[in-house]
Inverse folding.
């Protein structure tokens, strides 16, 4: 796995051994960041279920101002910090919170934090045709505190499995879907007052 663009392009990133981390594939990352374009420059980024930190490091490589990574596993957070060092970024540019994502979201929202770009590619859920998803992606969508963290013109990019059919709550509006193999990356914005559902 590597950084695909920007100042640190082609830097190799470490991935923890085992099946507990599913890094976002390089081709999917490239498609996401091609779609984001200049939005990444000077952005304040929040990455949830950060794992190796690959998405945040990609943002920093492409000109983001700062990134905050939330990762529950201290082992994975250790790999993330190694990747930060390998990519050549300062500790001031990327902070890591070793914490449950949903606890962190509530605390950040209570503290009045806000971000231009929120990225999350959580563990995939099960196939759920005929019933509502219980996946981590759906739980993020349903979290009432999460929209408070996104600036009015910000973007929330959420990864999920194609077989995991998500329900979009009224807080969110769909802007774009990118599909690659079993991966779907949904680009979402906050729904504006008076805007109807899609």
């Amino acid at each position: 796995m590597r950084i695909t663009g920007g100042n640190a392009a082609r830097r190799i990133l470490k991935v923890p051994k085992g099946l507990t981390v599913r890094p976002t594939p390089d081709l999917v990352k490239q498609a996401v960041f091609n779609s984001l374009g200049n939005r990444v420059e000077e952005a304040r980024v929040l990455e949830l279920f950060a794992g190796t930190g690959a998405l945040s490091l990609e943002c920093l490589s492409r000109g983001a101002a700062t990134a905050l990574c939330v990762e529950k596993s201290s082992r994975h957070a250790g790999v993330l910090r190694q990747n930060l060092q390998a990519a050549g970024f300062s500790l001031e540019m990327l902070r890591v919170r070793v914490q449950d994502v949903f606890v962190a979201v509530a605390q950040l929202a209570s503290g009045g934090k806000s971000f231009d770009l929120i990225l999350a590619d959580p563990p995939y859920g099960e196939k759920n045709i005929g019933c509502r998803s219980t996946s981590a992606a759906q739980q993020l969508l349903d979290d009432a505190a999460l929209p408070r963290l996104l600036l009015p013109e910000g973007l929330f990019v959420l990864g999920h499995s194609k077989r995991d059919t998500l329900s979009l709550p009224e807080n969110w509006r769909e802007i774009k879907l990118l599909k690659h193999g079993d991966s779907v990356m949904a680009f979402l914005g906050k729904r504006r007052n008076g805007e109807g559902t899609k």
In short: The first helix runs from residue 26 to 36. The beta strands are 44-48, 66-71, 94-98, 115-120, 150-161, 172-180, 183-190.
